[in-house]
Structure formats: C-alpha cells, structure tokens
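User: Study the shape:
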Amino acid sequence: MKSRQTGYCKNHFCEQMLKFSNDVVLAMTEAGRILMASPSIESAWGWSTEESFGKNICDLLSEASCEPCLHCFSECVVSGNSVVCELVVKREDHSCNPYELALHPLEKSYEDVQFIGIFRDISERFKFQDQQTEYLERLKQTRRELKRKEFELKSALSMVEQANQAKSEFLTNMSHEIRTPMTAIVGYSEALKESSNRTEQHDLIEIIQRNGDHLLQVINDILDISKIELGRYEVRKEDCSPLKVLQEVMTAYQPKAAEKGLQLVANIQETIPVTIQSDAARLKQVLDNLVSNAIKFTDNGVIHVEIREITQSNFERLLQFNVADTGIGISQEILKRIYDPFTQADSSATRPYSGTGLGLTLTHKLVQLLGGKLSVQSTVNQGSVFSVTLNVGIQTSQIRQSGRRLDYSSKKTSSHTPPDVSGGRPSTGMRGRVLLVEDTLEIRRLFSFMLSKMGLEVVTASNGKQAIELFQEAESQEEPYDLILMDMQMPVMDGYEATRFLRSQNHQLPVIAITAHTLISDREKCLAAGCSDYLGKPVKYNVLSEMVSRYLNATLNLQKYS
C-alpha cells in the first residue's frame, strides 16, 4: 500500500513538472507516433493532449522538417544515443516556429514508447541570431562606409595639400614679383630726392615715396595674412624690451601726428619689466598698426599709448598695451565684425578715410600668434581704446618701479641734408671692392648707385654662375672682393647654389643675401646656404649702408690682424 502511494506521488510530481515546463515533451513510438504529450503542447503548439494523441510527429512539422526528423530518429536507433536537431513546428493555426529537438531513446520500451522527445522553442535564439547577423551586416556596411570616407578624406586632404602648395608657391612668386619692382620705385625715388636740390622736385618725390610706402604696406598686409592662413608665419619669443619697442613706434609716428596737429603721448604706469618674452618685431607691427589707425581716424586731440602690468603670479605676468584716441569712434554694429577682413567703419564711396580694411584683421591674427588677446572699447565721435594683453613670461629681468609720461609731441624731426653728389664720392669712411649679383637690370643699377655713393668699387653679375667666374678671375689676379651682395632667386644659377659653392671652396668673405622672400624660414634658408646675413627687398639706403659698413669693417679688421 505504501509503495503504491509512493508511486502515485512520483507520478503526480512528474505530471506537475511537465505541466509547468515551457518545453513540449512527447512520448513516441519508433515510427514517430505520439502516445503521450505534456500539457505545455496546448499553449506552445495549440494542440490539446487528446488531439495530439496518435498523430505522427511529422504531422506537426513543416514539410521541409520531416526528412531531418526521420533522419534524427534513424540516427538515434543506430547509435543508441541521444540526438539533437533543429526543426520547424507547425502550430494548430498553421503558424510556424523553430524548435530544437532533443531525442532520447529508452532503454526499455513501455507500452510501445520508444523515444522521449523534448522540444525547446528557439525563436528568441533565431531572433537574436537574426539581430546579430543584421548588426554584423550593418557593421560591415559601416566599415565599408568608413573606408570610403577615409579614402575621400585622404583624397580631399591631398587636394588641399596640393592647393596649399600651389598657393604657397604663388605667394612666394608674388612676393618676389611685387617686391622687386617696389625696390626700384622706393630706391630710385630716394636716390632722386638726394640728388635734387629743387624744393618743387623734393615735394613731388616725397609724394612718390609716401604712396610707394603706402602701397608696400598694403602688399605686406596681404602677404602677411596669406602667410598666417597657410601656417607659414613664424613667431619667435625672445627677450626684448617693451620700452624700446614703444619708443621705436612713437618715434616713427610722431611726424604723422605732428602733421595733423595731434598730441602723441606715452604713459608707462606702475611696475613693468625691463625685458619680456615676446617677438619684438611682431609686437612692434601690432603697435604700428594700432597707432597708425589712431592717428588716421583722429582729427584733433591726443593719442595715448600706455604700458601697464595688470597681474603677476608664479605662473604668468600679464602686460597690457593700450592705444587710446579721441577720434571718430566705432559703432556697436561695426564692433561685432571689426576683425573681419575688409571691414571698415565707413565703406561708402564718399568715406573720408581710405584703406583696405586689412590692418585690424592682421593685428588680431598677430596678437593671437603672440598668445595674447586684442580687445576694443569705442564710442562714436568720442574715440576708441584698443588693448593688447600679453602673457610676457615670468622669467624676466629686474622690474622698473617708477611710472613715466613721455610727450612726443614736442620733439622735432631732424632736417635731412642731402649728401653732396655734385662731384666725387661722399665721405662715408668705407673702402672696398663689392661684387653685386642681381638678375634685374634696374636693381643692379640701383644698388650700384647706392654702393658707389658709399665710396665702394662695384662689379656686377647677372647670375650665380657669372658671379663665380668673376670671383675666381679676381682671385687669380690677386684683386679679391671684400664683400658679395647676392640675390637669391636668379636664372642659370641661383644665389643659394652659388653661395654653397663658394663656401665649399673655403672662401670666407661676407655674403649678404638680398631677396624678396621675407619669411623667417627664408632667412634661415639663406643662412643655411652659407650667407653671412640677410636683407629683404625693398632695401633702403641707410639700411644697406649700415650692414655693408659692418661687414666691411669686420673684413678689414680681419685682414689687418691676420
């Protein structure tokens, strides 16, 4: 009695397990006829246990799954082991779902039951696999798209590089083509002025010089902006004196301020360092533009240029340069785009102030290159204040403790007395023999004129090859040259190749490069070729005279003590 109850409990427990199982469990004959089904068949396949009784398993499968199912039965009989396969079950409503069949053979058949088949729904697995396949396909598509984009980007970058290279070459050639004739215009007008004693001619020549200088400034602004955009504008931060930079700017623009009856005043407030870490040439260019604009747009009153230290810590020292005027001012609308290229406060055809609208654009870019900030405050008809704030570095020398106010308005410009060119050469204290190498006839004549005025003997060559031949001939005749002025861009043989050849032959005489290319890298290229120094066109007489004198004196001293 007890064993019968125990058997009943086990059977009841098994029935409950099958009832709550999601898997469909079938008891089947060797031929696949269903003799018993778990209750889950109704919820899973839509068949009741009574309806499924006596059906062949193939009746509940899709047509394509019958043959794999029979093969599964056959393999299970032959091997005597459990077999797993995937089938598609056809529900009572004719919908289909994928299932995994685990077919287990019984060791002893019971009422013709030979196999127990456990069917597990694998729809979610298939769904996941489909999603995974779709994801992988999308990933492959994305990778193909990325490769295509990468190819397009490389092609675009290549085109940009080619365009930049072409623009850079054009910029270089344009610089040369513009600066060379400007050298002739500026140089010959200077020479003509010095050789003329008539006041009327002096006035006309000054007009030519003034307009030539203005044109050169416009050209420089355009080229500088192009260099910055190309990333070819170098800034070198070195020790420099802010007071020296300010004095040079104030001295240069005092005559223009005096012409308009303006007071030009410099204020050095609070404590400022004697030296700062910056690029003196670029800082001067910034202040030049700001002071020039202040004078240009001010008809009466005063121009204040101020230097003040606004903060100092262990990490930075901020120095501020302020240029304030009492001019026409700038409207709030224009202030929003004041640094845009070609922007002018008044762009009408009848505007009283001319200009290209490039000055502030260039100034803004230069201040950014210096690592600073340019700001402006302005009121129409009252004036403007432009402020340049720079981090000048903490490694500076002693601090100037006292403030000063310098009024440049009272300073008088020294009158220029033209040299006597009526007869003989003016006494400059120079002597020596110079080889001038320049391919442009007008520039050769101009430099020959200026060098002759210095009291020097001049021999000319039109290219590097001819220069080497003349140099070797002079050496063989024991009439050596004391200095060479070498243009760097010439036909047949350029100045770089000619200079390298001379240095390879151990000739140590000074070679001064004269070129229309004015980048710092151009200067370094000249020095790398063996040049002693560098002059950028156009070259004015006093600049040329100072450099020639310096190198001739060094050569003569070397000869004297050798």
About this structure: The chain has four domains: 2-121, 133-228, 234-410, 433-561.
